[in-house]
Amino acid sequence: MVFWIFGYGSLVWNPGFEYDEKVIGFIKDYRRVFDLACIDHRGTPESPARTCTLENVEGAICWGAAYCVRGGPERERLAMEYLERRECEYDKKTLVDFYKEGEPSQPALTGVIV
């Protein structure tokens, strides 16, 4: 089984989970916004940190990295458990098409989790 995850914020430089392949590219119809006030593991109640979220905007693109996790259900489960702890909004998962840098017309991957 192959499992792909799209990172658009800190996951780009610090994924924090084991992966087999990293591909730079973008998703369409989403943009990165810094509108979430976070006190879980960044910031404090008095001074919350701004963290990234995605906003659905027709015609927008969001650059990031797609990570491939191979090796079966156990590796997938471990990656998702980690992401659900780290990324509080992972209670809502969306599947998107992912486009490689330099190839904007055809998706390189489909069904990538964001």
TrEMBL record:
Cellular component per GO, a single term: cytoplasm
Protein name stated in the entry: Uncharacterized protein
One of the GO biological process terms: glutathione catabolic process
Origin species: Populus davidiana
Domain of life from the UniProt record: Eukaryota
Pfam family, one: ChaC
Alphabetic keyword roster: Lyase
Coiled-coil regions, chain positions: none
GO MF term set: glutathione specific gamma-glutamylcyclotransferase activity
